[in-house]
Design a protein that fits this description.
Blueprint: E1 4-10, E2 14-20, E3 26-33, E4 45-46, H1 48-66, E5 73-80, E6 85-89, E7 99-100, H2 108-116, H3 119-127, H4 136-146, H5 150-156, E8 159-163, H6 164-172, E9 182-184, H7 185-188, E10 194-195, E11 200-201, H8 203-209, E12 218-220, E13 242-247, H9 248-255, E14 264-268, E15 272-279, E16 290-295, E17 308-315, H10 319-329, H11 337-342, E18 352-354, E19 372-374, H12 382-408, E20 415-418, H13 425-435, E21 439-442, H14 447-460, H15 466-472, E22 475-479, H16 485-500
Parallel strand pairs: 1-5, 5-13, 9-12, 14-20, 20-21
Antiparallel strand pairs: 1-2, 2-3, 4-7, 6-8, 10-11, 14-15, 15-17, 16-17, 18-19, 21-22
């Protein structure tokens, strides 16, 4: 009997493979980073071939290190950085261009044109998203318009598009030798091309971006007993059924067992992403949030269950602001050092840092914004900047949570958190202080990979139902607010003033 489920977690800065047992406990892991390619200001790219090679390597290395064979695995799931667009040739398997990453802003003119002529309202109504550089469709349009030969190949059906889940699934199931071209409803909901009600590609939306339908993957449920094909890797890692596919933030929501309407989580990674489960109801945001598919699990024999939807607040730069302190400014040598540096001071010294490197995402959606450090005086030091960086993570999350409360009428009593930044205890204490509610971190902080494993395992009966998954969740640590209401209000007022200074910085035609 198979005792484990595996998950590929293909993220913005690295790829990892994790192994979980029935109790949701980590039993093996391997991780490798990949290069961040920055050709010019606002452009962010990845090498799809490197991503595929690293993802394959971490899977096989983790299996070898754990001494497990394919027969020890009931299923395998995949989760991925969303909105990052890859276009490749069906016959050669080679990408036409680097993957254009979700942080990339080169499509700002495409998004602005959609907004100006009223097509943005159609996209909001059908896809639940504002026209923004964040999402995949504009990236595909840019490749079709700027890379020689892609449009002709796309019209013939030879050029394929997908977010990184589709690219990896195609390679995992054989690539040019019969690879399956699919995605799931959560990833499809991040493209500006899928109708949220029908869960199918929408011809009107495709027309807005002049994207041939033949480029697009088949849309499947997030957890599917039929599977997406078997793993076809060399060196003894073949044969495991692939049955789970979720965008990373939806996967983290599943990993945090937010299965009831009103339950929410916040993931702290390269960016921050908060999702609020709204059940089977499509809730339209009036406050700058996204309406998205949370997950769709397998149903009865006559087809999949109804989709579960979510409101999402997406923040572009949080953990990557800490990387900026390390890589561009050099004031820390490792991400973990930011906490000790920030603890050297008791407050931000009047300094605010708004890391709008890629514009501002939720709830503002301002591609014209750029990063700013304000309130500086001769008194300030690099320790104040480190603390202001941690506070920026927390203030951006508060902006999203306030918008979520306005849209849903639900006021959070506790915030479930996960992701790498949650290891920073000062940041989590600041988050509780800035929100005024407790912050709770689970024992298994890698909830993104865990959620993909849960989706895969549910499909094959490794877990019988979501109640089993709830039993696996345990709290590791809780932070309670320590600031007074007056201090909290004063700090947030300063933050909002700082945000106003970032706007209208870039002129967009």
């Amino acid at each position: 009997m198979a005792d484990f489920v595996g998950a590929i977690d293909q993220g913005t800065t690295s790829s990892r493979f994790m192994i979980f047992d029935h109790g949701g406990n980590e039993r093996g892991k391997h991780q490798l980073e990949h290069a961040q390619i920055l050709p010019r200001a606002g452009w962010v790219e990845h090498n799809p071939v490197e991503i595929w090679e690293r993802s394959s390597a971490v899977l096989q290395t983790a299996m070898n290190a754990s001494g497990l064979a394919p027969s020890d695995f009931a299923a395998l799931g995949i989760t991925n950085q969303r909105e990052t667009a890859v276009v490749w040739n069906r016959k050669t398997g080679r990408p036409y261009y680097n993957a254009i990453v979700w942080q990339d802003t080169r499509t700002d003119r495409i998004a602005s044109a959609l907004e100006r002529d009223g097509r943005g309202d159609v996209i909001r109504a059908k896809a639940g998203l504002p026209p923004a550089t964040y999402f995949s469709a504009g990236k595909v349009q840019w490749i079709l318009e700027n890379v020689d030969g892609v449009r002709a190949d796309a019209e013939r059906g030879d050029a394929l598009f997908g977010n990184t889940d589709s690219w990896l699934l195609w390679n995992l199931t054989g690539g040019v030798n019969g690879g399956v071209h699919i995605t799931d409803v959560t990833n499809a909901s991040r493209t500006m091309l899928m109708n949220l009600e029908t869960l199918q590609w929408d011809d009107e939306l495709l027309g807005f971006f002049e994207i041939p339908r033949a480029m697009l993957p088949e849309i499947r449920p997030s957890s599917d007993p039929r599977g997406y094909g078997e793993l076809r890797l060399p060196r003894g890692a073949a044969g495991i059924p692939l049955t789970g596919d979720l965008g990373d933030q939806q996967a983290a929501t599943v990993g945090q067992v937010c299965f009831s309407p009103g339950e929410a989580k916040n993931t702290y990674g390269t960016g921050n992403f908060m999702l609020l489960n709204t059940g089977e109801d499509l809730v339209r945001s009036a406050n700058g949030l996204l309406t998205t598919v949370c997950y769709q699990f397998a149903g009865k024999e006559d087809g999949p269950a109804k989709p579960v939807y979510a409101l999402e607040g997406s923040i572009a730069v949080t953990g990557s602001a800490v990387q900026w302190l390390r890589d561009q400014l050099g004031i820390i040598s490792g991400a973990a050092e930011v906490e000790s540096l920030a603890r050297q001071v008791d407050d931000n010294g009047g300094m605010y840092f708004v890391p709008a490197f890629s514009g501002l995402f939720a709830p503002y959606w301002r591609s014209d914004a750029r990063g700013a450090i304000v309130g500086l005086s001769r008194f300030n030091t690099n320790a104040h900047l480190a603390r202001a960086t941690l506070e920026s993570i927390c203030y951006q999350s508060r902006d999203v949570i306030d918008a979520m409360a306005a849209d849903s009428g639900v006021r959070l009593e506790v915030l479930k958190v996960d992701g790498g930044v949650t290891a920073n205890e000062l940041c989590m204490q600041l988050q509780a202080d800035i929100l005024g509610v407790p912050v709770s971190r689970p024992v298994v902080a890698e909830t993104t990979a865990l959620g993909a494993a849960y989706a895969a395992g549910l499909a094959v009966g490794f877990w019988a139902h979501t109640d089993e998954l709830r039993e696996n969740w345990n709290e590791s640590q809780r932070w309670k607010p320590e600031w007074s209401d007056a201090k909290r209000a004063e700090g947030h007022a300063g933050w909002r003033k700082a945000v106003s200074r970032t706007l209208d910085w870039v002129e967009i035609d």
